[in-house]
Amino acid sequence: MSVAYGPSNAEESVQTLHHAYEQGIRFFDTAELYGNGHNEQLLGKAVQAYRDQIIIGTKFGFDMTAEPPGSRMNSRPDNIRRVVDNSLRYLQTDYIDVLYQHIFDPEVPIEEVAGIVGELIQEGKVKYFDLSNVGATTVRLAHAITPVSVLQMEYSIFEREIEDRILPTLRELGIGLVAYSPLGRGFLTGAVNPAHEYAADDFRRIDERWQGDNYTYNLHATEQLRQLADSKHITVAQLALAWLLNQGEDIVPIPGTRNSQRLDENIRAAKVTLTEADLQRIQDILPHGSAGSHYPASMISNFSHD
To answer: Considering the entire predicted model, what is its pTM?
Structure first.
């Protein structure tokens, strides 16, 4: 398992996956990048008993031979096919429901990527072509070659960048949104410390939202959200997920968790009702999202936010 957000326990992760299925969760998201294939192997082993009753999404797009792993992109056709074959083996399945390009590769035209995934769909190895971390223009170019079913982007009370161009484009084309990091990478769970208090390999150590004045601003905003959440007898995390579910039926949040208790808390957010006054209060607290970029500038330059 990836340690980007702290250490994990494989046994607990498997138990949480089983509990998720028992509670009605049917969409599970992974990627080659997560643990260099280990996360796919863990998921594949865990869900064998009900594989055909769930949707599995995984991703390609990084050069896993680079040091550190994933520091370079690679969406060349031969690598896409290699990754898909590996993912099928790791996941112990003969098809991938949702296949994403994880990150834009400036060396490979998106039309070529879409064409290769289209071939994989025709071969029965993949059901749906999907994208991640790209902008409106890239979505249009890819969609014209092979229909894009969903785009995966960070979207939450904290991160609102997609609202201007990307979300309207998706709705024009009939493409859904899978919202990753819907809890602000954990900031909205209440378990938060300044950047320097996290381990060197923890992503939050380099996330601008955990640093300096940004951290102070975001912590203050979270405390205001907590007051609203308390008035409704829910957690800030549930408030954030309920807000996201209010943004449209075409949006599916994918909060990550390692334990069943947090999973149950997240699931209960689907039953939370937010009034217009609640939604306006959230907008007043964070009119433009959090302070600080959701990725360092060096990483954003790799994305195609056109």
So the answer is: 0.90
